[in-house]
Amino acid sequence: MEGGEASLADRVTGKLVLEHVSKWFQTSSMNVHALDDVTLRIAEGEFVCLVGPSGCGKSTLLNMIAGLDRPDRGVVQADGQMITGPGPHRLMMFQEAALFPWLTVLGNVLFGLNLINGLSAVERREKAEYFLELVGLKRFMHANVHELSGGMKQRVALARSLAPNPSVLLMDEPFGALDALTREQLYGDIQRIWSQHRKTIVFVTHNVREAVCLGDRVILFSPHPGRIREEFEIPLPRPRDINSVDLARYSTEITRVLKGYVQAEVAG
């Protein structure tokens, strides 16, 4: 399956299925309606980007897929089973690398592998080194975390997420805190890795051009309560250059539509 070619049948069954999902949060002063009646199907091996303004519930939705939160209404499933809590087949990567500072680069990648039964110490080491090679950091495997740049830390976090072989990778603005040049390098890395391993990826971002660069589909959320307003197929061939004219055309159209929803919310 090439990017953007997930069949309708794949999506109807779906690796991930969300049906009529709604979520509220109670604060000290009000009841916040975070998500409203969200229905979404994501196929095996699909790369889907969720885009919308702050507070539209994108990260909340990601947390429910991860099993870190539960819907107040609706159904969230993975492989046909209700998601009731975290699981090893669905791993999350956050904006902050969240590495263990007392461990080396290799030690951080080994951490999750050490929790997997049935692997020998040699097999764990081989897997860790393989994924560090995949993200271009094998020669830094004995380095301490504080010796790494921000982009290198995110590469370690990516290797750590991939090493236990999850079927679903959930990414919550993982490149948001990085400079433009580092982000551009990582766009190439994540496309290459996705093409090789075909993980199902759900990627949250505020950056429309980033979403178009990476995703098979871009799912557009309206301001809170978050609702899916539109989705955009991105049939551009990979690898994609974030500075390309074709990519800019898609991002310009999606940005125009997104601004329309935000302006309507302000006017209302």
Describe the structure.
There is one protein chain. The protein is an alpha/beta fold. The protein has a domain at 100-165. It contains 8 helices and 10 strands. The chain has helices at 8-13, 58-66, 105-113, 121-134, 150-162, 180-197, 208-214, 245-267; strands spanning 16-26, 31-42, 47-51, 73-78, 81-82, 90-93, 168-172, 200-205, 217-221, 228-233. The strands form 2 sheets. Strands 6-7-8-3-9-10 form a 6-stranded mixed sheet, sandwiched between helices. The longest helix is centred in the last third of the chain and has 23 residues, at 245-267.
What is the topology?
Layout: H1 8-13, E1 16-26, E2 31-42, E3 47-51, H2 58-66, E4 73-78, E5 81-82, E6 90-93, H3 105-113, H4 121-134, H5 150-162, E7 168-172, H6 180-197, E8 200-205, H7 208-214, E9 217-221, E10 228-233, H8 245-267
Parallel strand pairs: 3-8, 3-9, 6-7, 7-8
Antiparallel strand pairs: 1-2, 1-4, 4-5, 9-10
Helix pairs in contact: 3-4, 3-5, 4-5, 7-8
Strand count, sense and barrel status of the largest sheet are:
6 strands, mixed
Question: What pattern of helices and strands is seen along the backbone?
Answer: HEEEHEEEHHHEHEHEEH
The order of strands across the largest sheet is 6-7-8-3-9-10
Structural class: alpha/beta
Helix segment tally: 8
